[in-house]
Write a structure and sequence with these properties.
Layout (H helix, E strand, L loop, with lengths): L2 E3 L4 E2 L2 E2 L5 H11 L6 E3 L7 H10 L4 E5 L13 E5 L2 E11 L11 E7 L2 E8 L5 H12 L17 E3 L5 E6 L1 E2 L5 E2 L2 E5 L14
Parallel strand pairs: 1-4
Antiparallel strand pairs: 2-3, 5-6, 7-8, 7-10, 7-11, 8-9, 11-14, 12-13
Organism: Actinopolyspora mortivallis
Protein name: DNA ligase (ATP)
GO biological process, one term: DNA recombination
């Protein structure tokens, strides 16, 4: 594990927050010995899109964009932006939870992929829907309901309605966790053209 340093608001009791970012980075370089696990993060000026693409290809979570002359702020601003790397994956719906609060139709989808003849649970998808997609999915899922779960190992979830694994959805997410689950998944839509039997883990 490594710690990547990219900014410093204070050094030896001195407040650097009013200084420009590049000045703070020069101070960071002069006052820090960069040996593992500490690593230096360079500033890329004018090549942000290419740098972000390279970071995603390398498997990073994302990149930060800061104004070169900006003072340090403790809150998000136009001079401090985070760009997250996003991957997509087709997955099969194996169940869903009931909605809570004012949300209509359904709460979250329980999804998975095929591996060696089994349906492997990949996590719950609870964002990315609008009211139309929520109601449309619920109508179709109600017709596919079954008593037991289709996953090889039943996930821990409350009040799950199990369904036949016949619907495929496209899901955006940031990465796979170490235990094989989706991190920050978001619903992107149904894949009517995809055979559920062909859905395997494709990313990471």
């Amino acid at each position: 594990m490594y710690c990547y340093l990219f900014d410093v608001p204070y050094v030896a009791g001195y407040d650097l927050t009013s200084m420009a970012l590049l000045e703070r980075k020069r101070m960071l370089a002069r006052t820090t010995r960069f040996t593992d696990p500490l690593r230096w993060t360079p500033y890329e000026n004018g090549r942000g899109t290419r740098y972000h693409r390279r970071s995603c290809e390398a498997g990073w979570e994302g990149t930060l964009a800061e104004g070169a002359t900006a003072a340090y702020l403790h809150d998000r601003s136009r001079n401090w932006l985070k760009f997250t790397c996003v991957a997509t994956q087709e997955l099969v719906i194996g169940g869903f939870t009931e909605p809570t609060g004012s949300r209509p139709a359904l709460g979250a989808l329980l999804v998975g992929y095929h591996e060696r003849g089994r349906l492997v649970y990949a996590g719950k998808v609870g964002t990315g829907f609008d009211q139309h997609s929520l109601r449309g999915l619920r109508e179709r899922l109600d017709r596919l309901e079954r008593r037991d779960g289709p996953f090889a190992e039943e996930p821990e979830a409350n009040e799950v309605r199990w369904v036949e694994p016949r619907l495929v959805v496209s899901v955006a997410f940031t990465e796979w966790t170490e235990d094989g689950k989706l991190r920050h998944p978001s619903y992107q839509g149904l894949r009517e053209d995809k055979d559920p039997a062909d859905v395997v883990r494709e990313v990471g």
